[in-house]
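Internal tracking record. Fields below are filled automatically when a chain is submitted to the structure queue. Please do not edit lines marked as system-generated. If the sequence contains nonstandard residues, flag them in the REMARKS field before resubmitting.
Queue: standard
Priority: normal
Entity type: single polypeptide chain
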Amino acid sequence: MDRFLAMEAFVRVVERGGFTAAAQDLRISRAMVSRHVQELEAHLGARLLQRTTRKVSVTEAGQVYYDRSAHLLSELAAAEGEVGEMHARPRGNLKVNGPMVFGALHLAPVVADYMRAFPEVNVELTLNDRIVDLVDEGYDVAVRIGRLEDSSMIARRLAPCRFVVVAAPDYLARRGVPRVPADLANHDCIRYMYSEGGEIWHFQGPDGPASVRVHGQLRTNNGEAMRIAALRGGAIAALPSFIVSQELASGALVPILRDYGVPEMAVHAVYPPGRNPSAKLRSFIDFLVPRFGEHPSWDAWMAHTP
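SYSTEM-GENERATED OUTPUT FOLLOWS
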């Protein structure tokens, strides 16, 4: 048994949803694909696929094997691609997805600079706050913020995403400055609809973790709306620093509860596993990394704020 071919056949069956489509991709017969998978199951001593007359589904063992195999094949394809296309020019159409506010503030300027550096690449940039299906919707790459749920995607870390609890100076003058997280229970707080914690904000402080249930008049699904409401003195908000960096630098918004860290997330570039990542995709991700990094420009305010 050729374990590489068997692994490749199994992964392609899972990704394409059947033996016929996998055979077309691999340019071998359907029977040969079936044989490779059967030999792999016999070698592993486990059933990887459930076959019916209508569809093929992955077993629990098959899902574990697929996750590891897809990653290995992608790494191998990446190594081959880097050697085989080392001198290839990035060109063609690149379809990029990103979150709304981060995309407008930080991703769009980098895309513009990338297109100047690589004039043969045409970029289609789509911004929204839903998690798109990269494969089904035909995206080459997405910039995502937060915890990555889809383990089959290849991810590259671009930057940290730090959250800051902020308020306008006039709000704090009227309502007082919270000193500990529990004080937020007596304040108006803007709640983000897509937050995992909902109305419970979590902190890590000098004495360990702390949580508080917050309330307020405004609940929204948009970080820009939260920024504007906080600026107008309406309430306290917990926002990514990339949204409020200018306001923090100017003093229009004030960071509070600095001794209590909000759980940090990260900005990643994610893309589907493939046999050979294109020169345009590799060049785009390589262009993003130094523009953001572990000390991104939007956190410069931290060095000047006590």
